[in-house]
Protein backbone atom coordinates (compact mmCIF):
# COMPACT_ATOMS: atom_id res chain seq x y z
CA UNK A 1 0.00 0.00 0.00
CA UNK A 2 1.42 3.41 -0.94
CA UNK A 3 1.13 5.87 1.88
CA UNK A 4 -0.07 9.40 1.36
CA UNK A 5 2.99 11.72 1.59
CA UNK A 6 1.26 13.69 4.34
CA UNK A 7 1.06 10.58 6.57
CA UNK A 8 4.73 9.89 5.86
CA UNK A 9 5.69 13.41 6.92
CA UNK A 10 3.63 13.06 10.12
CA UNK A 11 5.53 9.86 10.92
CA UNK A 12 8.90 11.52 10.32
CA UNK A 13 7.85 14.56 12.37
CA UNK A 14 6.91 12.28 15.26
CA UNK A 15 10.26 10.51 15.03
CA UNK A 16 12.05 13.89 15.17
CA UNK A 17 10.01 14.85 18.23
CA UNK A 18 10.79 11.54 20.01
CA UNK A 19 14.47 12.17 19.22
CA UNK A 20 14.38 15.38 21.29
CA UNK A 21 14.44 13.10 24.36
CA UNK A 22 17.91 11.83 23.41
CA UNK A 23 20.72 12.36 25.93
CA UNK A 24 23.36 14.96 25.03
CA UNK A 25 26.53 16.29 26.58
CA UNK A 26 25.44 18.72 29.34
CA UNK A 27 21.98 18.62 27.77
CA UNK A 28 23.17 20.96 25.00
CA UNK A 29 20.80 19.28 22.47
CA UNK A 30 23.18 20.21 19.64
CA UNK A 31 20.93 19.24 16.72
CA UNK A 32 18.36 20.52 14.29
CA UNK A 33 15.86 18.52 12.30
CA UNK A 34 14.65 19.61 8.87
CA UNK A 35 11.61 17.88 7.45
CA UNK A 36 11.36 17.52 3.67
CA UNK A 37 8.55 15.96 1.65
CA UNK A 38 9.77 12.35 1.86
CA UNK A 39 12.57 12.38 4.42
CA UNK A 40 13.88 14.19 7.48
CA UNK A 41 17.39 15.54 7.88
CA UNK A 42 19.48 15.64 11.04
CA UNK A 43 21.90 18.57 11.22
CA UNK A 44 24.63 19.31 13.75
CA UNK A 45 24.11 22.63 15.54
CA UNK A 46 27.72 23.76 15.99
CA UNK A 47 26.65 26.89 17.87
CA UNK A 48 25.96 24.49 20.75
CA UNK A 49 29.41 22.88 20.75
CA UNK A 50 31.33 23.20 24.05
CA UNK A 51 34.58 25.08 23.34
CA UNK A 52 36.42 23.89 26.45
CA UNK A 53 35.15 20.34 26.90
CA UNK A 54 34.60 19.37 23.28
CA UNK A 55 36.80 21.38 20.88
CA UNK A 56 36.77 18.60 18.22
CA UNK A 57 32.98 18.20 18.41
CA UNK A 58 33.24 14.48 19.18
CA UNK A 59 30.71 14.64 22.03
CA UNK A 60 28.46 16.82 19.89
CA UNK A 61 28.47 14.05 17.26
CA UNK A 62 27.91 11.35 19.88
CA UNK A 63 24.89 13.32 21.11
CA UNK A 64 23.56 13.67 17.55
CA UNK A 65 24.13 9.94 16.98
CA UNK A 66 21.95 9.24 20.04
CA UNK A 67 19.22 11.49 18.56
CA UNK A 68 19.51 9.65 15.23
CA UNK A 69 19.03 6.27 16.92
CA UNK A 70 16.06 7.60 18.92
CA UNK A 71 14.39 8.67 15.63
CA UNK A 72 15.01 5.22 14.10
CA UNK A 73 13.52 3.57 17.21
CA UNK A 74 10.42 5.76 16.90
CA UNK A 75 9.95 4.80 13.23
CA UNK A 76 10.35 1.11 14.07
CA UNK A 77 7.76 1.45 16.83
CA UNK A 78 5.39 2.85 14.22
CA UNK A 79 6.04 -0.22 12.04
CA UNK A 80 8.62 1.07 9.52
CA UNK A 81 12.13 -0.18 8.82
CA UNK A 82 13.73 3.34 8.75
CA UNK A 83 16.17 3.88 5.92
CA UNK A 84 19.19 5.99 6.96
CA UNK A 85 21.92 7.61 4.85
CA UNK A 86 24.71 8.77 7.15
CA UNK A 87 26.86 11.80 6.26
CA UNK A 88 25.33 11.80 2.76
CA UNK A 89 27.05 14.96 1.43
CA UNK A 90 30.82 15.49 1.82
CA UNK A 91 30.31 19.17 0.88
CA UNK A 92 27.97 19.63 3.87
CA UNK A 93 29.56 17.73 6.79
CA UNK A 94 26.98 19.09 9.25
CA UNK A 95 24.24 17.21 7.43
CA UNK A 96 24.60 14.10 9.57
CA UNK A 97 21.82 11.91 8.27
CA UNK A 98 18.88 11.71 5.93
CA UNK A 99 16.14 9.39 7.20
CA UNK A 100 13.30 7.94 5.19
CA UNK A 101 10.44 6.00 6.69
CA UNK A 102 11.42 2.80 4.86
CA UNK A 103 9.36 -0.28 4.19
CA UNK A 104 6.58 -1.40 6.56
CA UNK A 105 7.72 -4.06 9.01
CA UNK A 106 6.75 -5.49 12.37
CA UNK A 107 6.23 -2.73 14.98
CA UNK A 108 8.78 -2.91 17.78
CA UNK A 109 7.81 -0.71 20.72
CA UNK A 110 10.10 -1.94 23.50
CA UNK A 111 12.95 0.53 22.99
CA UNK A 112 10.46 3.28 22.12
CA UNK A 113 8.86 2.97 25.55
CA UNK A 114 12.34 3.13 27.10
CA UNK A 115 12.90 6.54 25.43
CA UNK A 116 10.43 8.08 27.89
CA UNK A 117 11.71 6.15 30.93
CA UNK A 118 15.45 6.65 30.36
CA UNK A 119 17.23 9.17 32.60
CA UNK A 120 20.83 9.92 33.44
CA UNK A 121 21.03 8.39 36.92
CA UNK A 122 24.11 9.75 38.71
CA UNK A 123 23.28 8.15 42.10
CA UNK A 124 25.24 5.22 43.53
CA UNK A 125 23.64 1.99 42.29
CA UNK A 126 22.80 -1.13 44.33
CA UNK A 127 24.93 -4.09 45.45
CA UNK A 128 23.83 -6.52 42.75
CA UNK A 129 25.99 -6.62 39.63
CA UNK A 130 24.19 -6.75 36.25
CA UNK A 131 24.33 -10.36 35.05
CA UNK A 132 26.35 -11.74 32.16
CA UNK A 133 23.23 -12.31 30.02
CA UNK A 134 22.24 -8.64 30.09
CA UNK A 135 25.84 -7.55 29.49
CA UNK A 136 25.92 -9.80 26.41
CA UNK A 137 22.72 -8.15 25.24
CA UNK A 138 24.30 -4.71 25.68
CA UNK A 139 27.35 -5.86 23.71
CA UNK A 140 25.07 -6.93 20.83
CA UNK A 141 23.32 -3.54 21.00
CA UNK A 142 26.69 -1.78 20.50
CA UNK A 143 27.85 -4.20 17.81
CA UNK A 144 24.74 -3.48 15.72
CA UNK A 145 26.51 -0.15 15.05
CA UNK A 146 29.97 -1.68 14.52
CA UNK A 147 31.01 -0.36 17.94
CA UNK A 148 32.80 -2.58 20.43
CA UNK A 149 31.66 -2.68 24.06
CA UNK A 150 34.36 -3.35 26.64
CA UNK A 151 33.28 -4.30 30.17
CA UNK A 152 36.00 -2.98 32.51
CA UNK A 153 37.27 -6.08 34.35
CA UNK A 154 37.55 -6.18 38.16
CA UNK A 155 41.35 -6.04 37.87
CA UNK A 156 41.09 -2.91 35.66
CA UNK A 157 38.69 -0.91 37.84
CA UNK A 158 41.39 0.75 39.98
CA UNK A 159 43.29 1.94 36.90
CA UNK A 160 40.02 3.08 35.30
CA UNK A 161 39.06 5.01 38.46
CA UNK A 162 42.43 6.73 38.51
CA UNK A 163 42.02 7.69 34.83
CA UNK A 164 38.67 9.32 35.73
CA UNK A 165 40.25 11.08 38.74
CA UNK A 166 43.14 12.33 36.62
CA UNK A 167 40.78 13.64 33.90
CA UNK A 168 38.79 15.50 36.54
CA UNK A 169 41.91 16.99 38.10
CA UNK A 170 43.13 18.24 34.70
CA UNK A 171 39.72 19.71 33.86
CA UNK A 172 39.21 21.38 37.25
CA UNK A 173 42.31 23.46 36.68
CA UNK A 174 41.22 24.53 33.17
CA UNK A 175 39.24 27.80 33.01
CA UNK A 176 37.63 26.99 29.63
CA UNK A 177 36.35 23.69 30.96
CA UNK A 178 34.99 25.34 34.13
CA UNK A 179 33.32 28.02 31.99
CA UNK A 180 31.43 25.32 30.02
CA UNK A 181 30.24 23.60 33.19
CA UNK A 182 29.17 26.88 34.78
CA UNK A 183 27.36 28.03 31.62
CA UNK A 184 25.43 24.79 31.11
CA UNK A 185 24.48 24.24 34.76
CA UNK A 186 23.02 27.76 35.12
CA UNK A 187 20.98 28.10 31.93
CA UNK A 188 17.88 30.34 32.16
CA UNK A 189 14.82 28.18 32.58
CA UNK A 190 13.19 29.40 29.37
CA UNK A 191 16.09 27.99 27.29
CA UNK A 192 14.93 24.47 28.23
CA UNK A 193 18.40 22.96 28.10
CA UNK A 194 21.42 22.43 30.38
CA UNK A 195 21.77 20.31 33.52
CA UNK A 196 19.69 21.17 36.58
CA UNK A 197 20.86 20.61 40.17
CA UNK A 198 17.67 18.52 40.55
CA UNK A 199 19.39 15.71 38.62
CA UNK A 200 22.85 15.86 40.21
CA UNK A 201 24.03 14.27 43.43
CA UNK A 202 26.63 15.41 45.96
CA UNK A 203 29.93 13.60 45.44
CA UNK A 204 30.21 10.93 48.13
CA UNK A 205 32.63 8.12 48.88
CA UNK A 206 32.64 5.75 45.86
CA UNK A 207 34.98 3.44 43.96
CA UNK A 208 35.01 6.07 41.27
CA UNK A 209 34.17 9.76 41.58
CA UNK A 210 32.54 11.15 38.43
CA UNK A 211 32.85 14.82 37.56
CA UNK A 212 31.45 17.49 39.82
CA UNK A 213 28.58 19.28 38.08
CA UNK A 214 27.90 21.45 41.10
CA UNK A 215 30.31 24.32 40.65
CA UNK A 216 27.45 26.84 40.70
CA UNK A 217 24.74 25.34 42.89
CA UNK A 218 24.59 22.46 45.36
CA UNK A 219 23.14 19.18 44.07
CA UNK A 220 19.62 18.53 45.24
CA UNK A 221 18.99 14.91 44.18
CA UNK A 222 19.16 12.56 47.18
CA UNK A 223 21.93 10.01 46.46
CA UNK A 224 19.87 7.36 48.31
CA UNK A 225 21.16 4.23 50.00
CA UNK A 226 23.09 2.69 47.06
CA UNK A 227 26.54 1.29 47.84
CA UNK A 228 27.63 1.34 44.17
CA UNK A 229 29.23 -2.07 44.81
CA UNK A 230 27.43 -3.77 41.91
CA UNK A 231 28.18 -1.03 39.38
CA UNK A 232 29.89 -2.07 36.15
CA UNK A 233 31.82 0.27 33.88
CA UNK A 234 31.49 -0.04 30.12
CA UNK A 235 33.59 1.62 27.44
CA UNK A 236 32.36 2.00 23.86
CA UNK A 237 35.29 1.61 21.50
CA UNK A 238 35.39 2.68 17.83
CA UNK A 239 37.79 1.88 14.99
CA UNK A 240 38.75 5.44 14.08
CA UNK A 241 39.01 8.96 15.46
CA UNK A 242 36.62 10.40 12.87
CA UNK A 243 33.13 11.96 12.62
CA UNK A 244 31.49 8.83 11.15
CA UNK A 245 32.83 6.76 14.07
CA UNK A 246 31.63 9.30 16.68
CA UNK A 247 28.17 9.36 15.09
CA UNK A 248 28.05 5.54 15.20
CA UNK A 249 29.23 5.60 18.83
CA UNK A 250 26.29 7.88 19.65
CA UNK A 251 23.87 5.46 17.98
CA UNK A 252 25.44 2.63 19.97
CA UNK A 253 25.24 4.65 23.20
CA UNK A 254 21.52 5.16 22.64
CA UNK A 255 20.93 1.50 21.73
CA UNK A 256 22.83 0.27 24.81
CA UNK A 257 21.15 2.80 27.12
CA UNK A 258 17.59 2.13 25.89
CA UNK A 259 18.21 -1.64 26.06
CA UNK A 260 19.47 -1.48 29.64
CA UNK A 261 16.55 0.81 30.57
CA UNK A 262 14.14 -1.76 29.12
CA UNK A 263 15.81 -4.37 31.37
CA UNK A 264 15.32 -2.26 34.54
CA UNK A 265 18.94 -1.08 34.79
CA UNK A 266 20.13 2.52 35.05
CA UNK A 267 23.22 4.36 33.78
CA UNK A 268 25.17 7.58 33.56
CA UNK A 269 27.92 8.42 31.06
CA UNK A 270 31.47 9.30 32.07
CA UNK A 271 32.82 11.28 29.15
CA UNK A 272 35.69 13.05 30.94
CA UNK A 273 37.96 10.07 30.14
CA UNK A 274 37.77 10.88 26.42
CA UNK A 275 37.84 14.67 26.79
CA UNK A 276 41.48 14.84 27.96
CA UNK A 277 43.81 13.49 25.29
CA UNK A 278 46.43 11.99 27.64
CA UNK A 279 43.69 10.17 29.59
CA UNK A 280 42.11 8.92 26.38
CA UNK A 281 45.45 7.45 25.35
CA UNK A 282 45.97 5.89 28.80
CA UNK A 283 42.49 4.34 28.63
CA UNK A 284 43.21 3.01 25.16
CA UNK A 285 46.35 1.33 26.53
CA UNK A 286 44.41 -0.09 29.49
CA UNK A 287 41.96 -1.68 27.04
CA UNK A 288 44.76 -3.41 25.16
CA UNK A 289 45.62 -0.73 22.60
CA UNK A 290 42.97 -1.83 20.10
CA UNK A 291 40.52 0.82 18.87
CA UNK A 292 39.66 4.24 20.30
CA UNK A 293 37.54 4.80 23.42
CA UNK A 294 34.50 6.94 22.50
CA UNK A 295 32.68 7.17 25.86
CA UNK A 296 32.35 5.30 29.16
CA UNK A 297 29.17 4.45 31.03
CA UNK A 298 28.47 3.34 34.59
CA UNK A 299 25.62 0.84 34.72
CA UNK A 300 23.84 -0.82 37.61
CA UNK A 301 20.61 -1.79 39.33
CA UNK A 302 19.00 1.25 40.95
CA UNK A 303 19.17 0.93 44.74
CA UNK A 304 16.03 -0.69 46.22
CA UNK A 305 13.14 1.80 46.52
CA UNK A 306 15.08 4.50 44.67
CA UNK A 307 12.72 7.32 43.68
CA UNK A 308 12.59 8.13 39.95
CA UNK A 309 15.16 10.70 38.77
CA UNK A 310 13.32 13.87 37.67
CA UNK A 311 12.90 14.18 33.92
CA UNK A 312 15.29 16.70 32.37
CA UNK A 313 14.11 19.58 30.23
CA UNK A 314 14.11 19.72 26.40
CA UNK A 315 13.68 22.40 23.76
CA UNK A 316 10.41 22.30 21.86
CA UNK A 317 9.80 20.94 18.37
CA UNK A 318 9.13 24.53 17.25
CA UNK A 319 12.72 25.44 18.16
CA UNK A 320 14.41 22.37 16.72
CA UNK A 321 12.33 20.93 13.88
CA UNK A 322 12.06 22.92 10.64
CA UNK A 323 8.98 22.24 8.53
CA UNK A 324 9.00 21.81 4.74
CA UNK A 325 9.35 25.19 3.08
CA UNK A 326 10.97 26.79 6.14
CA UNK A 327 14.64 27.80 5.96
C1 LIG B 1 27.99 12.29 24.71
C2 LIG B 1 27.46 12.45 26.12
C3 LIG B 1 28.33 12.68 27.18
C4 LIG B 1 27.85 12.80 28.49
N1 LIG B 1 28.75 12.96 29.52
C5 LIG B 1 28.29 12.99 30.79
C6 LIG B 1 29.22 13.01 31.88
O1 LIG B 1 30.44 12.97 31.70
N2 LIG B 1 28.71 13.07 33.15
C7 LIG B 1 27.36 13.06 33.39
O2 LIG B 1 26.97 13.09 34.55
N3 LIG B 1 26.46 13.01 32.37
C8 LIG B 1 26.90 12.97 31.09
N4 LIG B 1 26.00 12.88 30.05
C9 LIG B 1 24.56 12.87 30.34
C10 LIG B 1 23.90 14.22 30.02
O3 LIG B 1 24.29 15.18 30.98
C11 LIG B 1 22.39 14.02 29.99
O4 LIG B 1 22.08 13.19 28.89
C12 LIG B 1 21.61 15.32 29.83
O5 LIG B 1 21.85 16.17 30.92
C13 LIG B 1 20.10 15.07 29.70
O6 LIG B 1 19.61 14.35 30.81
P1 LIG B 1 18.88 12.94 30.64
O7 LIG B 1 19.89 12.00 30.06
O8 LIG B 1 18.46 12.54 32.03
O9 LIG B 1 17.73 13.10 29.71
C14 LIG B 1 26.46 12.74 28.74
C15 LIG B 1 25.58 12.51 27.67
C16 LIG B 1 26.07 12.34 26.38
C17 LIG B 1 25.12 12.03 25.25
From TrEMBL:
GO terms for molecular function: oxidoreductase activity. It comes from the Bacteria. InterPro entries: Nitroreductase-like, Nitroreductase/BluB. It comes from Dactylosporangium sucinum. Gene3D superfamilies: NADH Oxidase. This is NAD(P)H nitroreductase. Residues 189-220, 301-327 are annotated as: Disordered. NCBIfam families: Rv3131_FMN_oxido (NF047509).
